[in-house]
Amino acid sequence: MTELAAAIAVVGAALAAAYGNQAVIVKTIESMTRQPELSNELRSTMFIGVALIEAMPIFAVLIALILVFVK
Description:
This protein has 71 residues and is mostly helical. The chain has helices spanning 2-34, 39-69. Helix 1 (2-34) packs antiparallel against helix 2.
């Protein structure tokens, strides 16, 4: 049962991160088309946001590994 819970946690975190990254990138591209002069600033802010969003699945994998291997 622990392995199933760990797998569900990792899948949920991956799906949530994919949705979050999609939302951030879509809004950034939309903003770049509206204000092209801010493209560099928007791009760097987007990369920071994507990195923070990607931290969530990494933590989920770590917690899943702890759940599976530490008993």
